[in-house]
Queue: 2 jobs
Job 1
Amino acid sequence: MLKKNDHQTGIFSGSSKLSLTSAVPEELPRGRPQEKCGIFAVYGYRGPENAALVTYLGLLALQHRGQESAGIAFKEEGKIRAIKGMGMVDHVFSRRELSLIEADTVLGHVRYATAGPSIAVNAQPLLALSHDRTGMALAHNGNLTNTRKLHHRLLETGHIFHTTSDTEILLTYLFRFRRLGLVEAARKTMGIVQGAYSAVVLDHDRLVAFRDPNGFRPLVIGRLDGAYILASETAAFDLVGAEVVREVKPGEIISIGPEGLSSAGVQSGGEPSYCIFEYVYFARPDSVIDGSSVHLVRKKVGSLLAGRLSAKLDLVIPSPDSGVSAASGLAEALNLPLEWAIYRNPYLGRTFIKPGQETREMAVRLKFNPVTGLIRGKRVALVDDSLVRGTTARVLTALLRDSGAAEVHLGIASPPYKNPCYYGIDIPVPDELAALDENMDHLTASIGADSITFAEPEDLYEAVGKDRTELCTACFTGLYPTPGR
Ligand code: 5GP
Ligand code: MG
């Protein structure tokens, strides 16, 4: 766990040579909620399925964004209700239960809280209800950075917190301003909270979506059978057969009601800085973010990485499945065979989730098995999207060596991961980050590879087709787009 004062030492220090501004997060007193989540909402759906089932499908497509809890909220006879639970989407909902929901407007969420407590009360959508069960439901993807200050402020005004999630802060302000209408409530709230939020709120007659002025986390508008849809990623639209309309712009408030969809304007407060890690790892490869195919971005980074590798190679092997897109670009650029030489057991969860280094290595070993016949005597490039703790690379390199690889050269399709993220991506505590040691020989030896080659930040900018200033690259560069306090 990140200790409260960690920011006063080491790379958390504002004086770190890489930092432009010190983006020190303010934490809740209990726990450190860091969430990267998925949102799916549908307004006014009158197609062949029911809105709850459509939402269920959308959440299934966004399962990679959060496996800890799932939930939906909807309006029934003027009252807001929710079905939520811990675990995967398929586990939380039953078809029977969903098919009984008549609401044409449903808001859904999958949650991934890696460092904060994994408890049911934090499952979203979060509800704020009046005595007659009217009220609102909120789904949030991101992480606020002025949490501690707002938490204290709300406590002083008599608020009793029911969760340890920063989403409750957002909801509390929205609810306090509800008499102004949801759009104005969102506008007022945006003037108070800082950090990363792509959020959707539902009340008795509308859905309002709002995105922080930096636009850290994605949020897209779509259409399906005359209804409007909002989702974190376009892959969710593909599954339900919806078309993409456009992104919610950074700082924008979108209102969907009986009169249709309208933009309530764009709040200023910062330059857009889309999260680069969505492109590197987090989003599905079949999603399109701001016009760019995630797979093609990763493939392009792989081809640029190819130009940086100097070793003689026989074979390119992706780290499954996260290295596949980059490995295909790298193999194509070097005109080398791409072989699926490491099998990944698809029936296990992601290893990142499990705490403690020993269990993590065991989990990685549980997950992967080599196809020895392909590897023996070969000089291989092992390609992954990122190197965080180094666990995956270490285990896979050892696996390839045990299978008789003559040489193992590691290609990482992103720069060394050096800085914590305060905007909603799970980052280990700083001293667990493998690339903190800038000595490449040490790093290569600690991974056990013959060489390690990282992509440069410029490779990412080129592949994404955005300027550095339009992206949040803090995890790689230490340049934080927002001040901490
Ligand atoms: P490492 O094993 O070096 O700690 O982490 C790098 C590996 O974990 C890569 O294979 C990458 O695909 C994956 N990874 C990177 N970031 C995340 C994350 O936030 N969550 C999960 N589950 N995996 C991640
Ligand atoms: Mg991986």
Job 2
Amino acid sequence: MVMRAAVYPGSFDPVTNGHLDVIERALKIFDKIIVAVGDNPGKKPLFSTQERIEMLKESTKGMKNVEVDSFLGLLLDYVKKKNSKVIIRGLRAVSDFDFEFQRALLNRVADGDIETVFIMTKENYVYLNSSIVKEIAMFHGRVNGLVPKIVEEKLREKFGE
Ligand code: ADP
């Protein structure tokens, strides 16, 4: 049997319930999801790559067939290295579309064998992203229901009660 693995790349700074929803939906379509934390030195993340990986591992430990990893450099090279042909991206609103469309087409021009698959999130998470979560946490607002427990704790460690 051929295992169909898909790579779900992102910053995951930090992982939110929106990301987890996308992973769960993707697991219904593919045999394995490789969640790949982009180790982009140009971005200034709040959490280190290691911290982001740990939070992802903790919050997906109840799910079968999820691997958490990080990658440096070109996503297409990483996808090939993992013997996959599929990139998963989440779509929230039309606002995501332009950027995602551009990226997916660019990747297709670079390698016609690799497909990008878009997964729509649950309605509750349409307005959820990592930046909003960080902003709320910075001002000590409530992030419960938006992120997994481990992320709530990590945010409290960063910003205090
Ligand atoms: P990136 O910097 O690569 O956009 P993110 O961690 O912000 O990394 O997002 C990773 C992927 O998850 C993107 O495809 C993004 O659209 C998607 N995503 C983020 N938040 C949500 C959400 N609430 N619902 C659905 N998809 C989401």
